[in-house]
Design brief:
This protein is α/β, with parallel strands linked by helices and 322 residues long. Among the domains are: 149 residues, Rossmann fold (3-Layer(aba) Sandwich); 61 residues, 2-Layer Sandwich (Alpha-Beta Plaits). A 6-stranded mixed β-sheet has the order 6-7-8-3-9-10, with helices on both faces. The protein starts with 8 loop residues before the first strand and ends with a helix. Bound molecules: adenosine-5'-triphosphate and magnesium ion (MG). Adenosine-5'-triphosphate binds next to strand 1, strand 2 and helix 1.
């Protein structure tokens, strides 16, 4: 008998709309999202500004009610205290009591989870160490930089030693070093067996970190899957060639083979998508005694995929409107 592990997060056809303005105009923030996050994986929830990431996460954390659909954490319906006790959460714009020191701040959150005394103090020390903030343990939060606040915010999300950590934009506002530190931290959480779901519009971070990603745009999922599979399924096999000393007659033979040709003085840059066109272009270069300066295959990145999906989503919306 196969034992199928229960997803840690399961979302089915989740919807949320808001009423805005005097006339109560309906704004759809989340429009039928379904996804699952499996135990032990790092799951990236990606999308541009206003896509519906925070709204979905707030519904998962029981902070706002869905307008439709269902969601469970550890198989229990959202809002169930038993499920919430196993989850840690970093909000997008955390409100910090900025006159507290990091220790006092973490103590406050520890008390909310019923932690006390030496157990709590030991946990605080461990967490400050984990996020590299031991040196600032007695400093008031109002004296913190954005990166320091983000790190202490992540420590807060871990105070109850959660099995699932949900982080809304954990890298936002951080410089490249800060982002690398948060990435390392997320990988350490994964190594220690935790499940991590985080939202981001920084695709590079997601590419480096995630086992699987979901992309959401205008409230709808546009794709979901393993990063490597998504990228492999979308490979364009583009090759960029840079050629010097190409005579006009040879250039005319290359133009119909290339999807794009750019002239920069004596230099020609050509983009080719089919292998036979690459071979033919190389033949032309050889026979014309031109010089091949560079040949660069373009690997599809999550960013390329994202832009293509965004354009696709936009065309679909336009088609619906038309
Ligand atoms: N309380 C609210 N009242 C009205 N509209 C809202 C509310 N919260 C969110 N929205 C709208 O829902 C949509 C999705 O917002 P959401 O904050 O979920 O996006 P996001 O993907 O988290 O974006 P960002 O990357 O900017 O954080 C937006 O159009 C936003 O204006
Ligand atoms: Mg957001």
């Amino acid at each position: 008998m196969d034992i199928v592990a229960q997803p840690v997060v399961q979302v089915q056809n989740l919807r949320k709309f808001f009423r805005v303005g005097f006339w109560g105009r309906r704004v759809t923030a989340v429009d039928g999202v379904s996804l699952e996050v499996q135990q032990g994986e790092v799951f990236g929830f990606l999308g541009p500004n206003g896509a519906g990431k925070t709204t979905t996460i707030k519904m998962l954390m029981g902070l706002i009610y869905p307008s439709g659909g269902t969601a469970t954490l550890f198989g229990k319906s959202i809002g169930d205290p038993a499920a919430k006790a196993k989850a840690g959460f970093l909000p997008e714009s955390p409100y910090f009591y900025d006159y507290l020191t990091s220790r006092e701040f973490l103590r406050f959150y520890g008390h909310l989870f019923g932690l006390m005394g030496s157990t709590l103090e030991k946990r605080i020390d461990e967490l400050l160490e984990l996020v590299g903030m031991t040196h600032a343990r007695d400093l008031q939060l109002r004296k913190f930089s954005k990166g320091m606040l983000q790190r202490v915010g992540i420590a807060q999300a871990l105070i109850n030693d959660p099995e699932l950590v949900i982080l809304d934009e954990p890298m936002s506002g951080l410089d490249p070093i800060g982002r690398k530190e948060v990435r390392d931290l997320i990988l350490r959480l994964k190594e220690s067996g935790k499940t991590v779901m985080f939202s981001s519009h920084i695709l590079h971070d997601a590419e480096l970190l995630c086992d699987r990603v979901a992309m959401i745009m205008k409230g709808r999922l546009v794709t979901c899957g393993h990063v490597s599979e998504l990228i492999a399924g979308d490979t364009t096999h583009e090759v960029e060639m840079v050629i010097d000393r190409l005579l006009p007659e040879a250039l005319e033979r290359i133009k119909p083979l290339a999807s794009k040709v750019v002239l920069q003085g004596e230099r020609v840059m050509a983009v080719l998508t089919r292998q036979q066109d690459v071979d033919q272009t190389l033949d032309v270069i050889r026979s014309a005694k031109a010089k091949l300066v560079a040949l660069t295959p373009h690997k599809t990145s999550l960013e390329d995929l994202f832009i293509r999906k965004a354009n696709g989503a936009q065309s679909a919306v336009e088609a619906r409107v038309a």
